[in-house]
Amino acid sequence: MAEQIKILIVDDKPNNLFTLKTVLQEVTAEFVEATSGNDALRELLHHDFALAILDVQMPEMDGYELARLIRGREKTSRLPIIFLSAIYSDSFHIFKGYNSGAVDFITKPFHPEILIGKVLFFIEIYRQQQQLKETISELERTKQLVLEQNRQLERLATHDELTGLCNRRKLAEVMKREVERSRRYGTELSLLMLDLDYFKQVNDSYGHDFGDYVIKEFAARILTGLRSSDFSFRFGGEEFIILLPQTNVSGALIAAEKIRNHCLEQPFANGQFSISMTVSIGIASYQNHQPQQPDDLICCADRALYRAKESGRNRVIVYNSLTNQCADEEPASRQP
């Protein structure tokens, strides 16, 4: 239910307030009374008014001063003010009322229909303003909802649903940017390709649900050892890629061994099954291997990973770029 519209009426004489409310009894609004300027200012702190009707001549603070104070306060600076006066009807005082911030100056005696019409006019303006505020607020909520939905769609498009890591689409974007940065500024950039050893046997022996748990847990372990500037990706199945900006081969070896040991030393247990896993890791470095294209760096790490598998698994191998032709050759068949 919409809040009732409120109108502030200010006059130091209670009889005048009663008469004014009687004249406006057909107007659907709540009339808040004040018998002085200070009382009116206090009411303005607690209510949001559609209109203020002020007497001019009042003790301590006249209507002109009150109007100026209302105009000087940010919250009430746009509040419509109507002056009612039985004493001042000359041009000087009328213009003084307008200069004080009034939108109208009505002298007594006045025709009730005229005042009622003006009050209804400002009530309608107030209603339209409130409706506009609600519309703007609703549009802002809709905008924020759309932005959040877009963020969620972007995340779904660029992140792996199971692990929360970035996916291959995001990998292509990040690789292009980071390789270009390394090429332009001569900075280090290393790439780790990781593959869980004998993962197919996990799915075959314990089921895909436990296999998914192992994938998620391994991804979580990867993240615990990375810096905020590093990037992690699920490349596919049980394969992962880690991109390490500002990191040479020695630094990449340290990071890789930390991940390998973490995987080896802590069993994967979900309360139903508990198994030990190992991981094989291949490393390639942009400055060491100078790949022509971003994908070539992945190819180099992939070859190093293959050698790690071929050499017995559970180890870290750095790509040897003696031939410098990794981009032109097809890697041998991958072992599990």
Return residue spans where pLDDT drops below 50 for at least 5 consecutive residues. 322-334
Give, in spatial order, the strands making up the sheet with the most strands: 2-1-3-4-5
- Note the quaternary state here: single chain
Number of strands: 12
How widely separated are the two ends? 66 Å
> Please, how many domains?
2
Q: What does this molecule look like?
A:
The chain has 336 residues and is α/β, with parallel strands linked by helices. Helices cover 50% and strands 18% of the residues. The longest helix has 47 residues, at 112-158. The chain is rod-shaped. It catalyses: 2 GTP = 3',3'-c-di-GMP + 2 diphosphate. It is an enzyme of class 2 (transferase).
In short:
With 336 residues, the protein is an alpha/beta fold.
What is the secondary structure topology, with strand pairs?
Elements: E1 6-10, H1 14-23, E2 30-34, H2 37-46, E3 51-55, H3 63-72, E4 81-85, H4 91-99, E5 104-107, H5 112-158, H6 168-185, E6 189-196, H7 199-206, H8 208-224, E7 231-236, E8 239-245, H9 249-265, E9 268-269, E10 274-275, E11 279-285, H10 286-289, H11 294-310, E12 316-318
Parallel strand pairs: 1-2, 1-3, 3-4, 4-5, 11-12
Antiparallel strand pairs: 6-8, 6-11, 7-8, 9-10
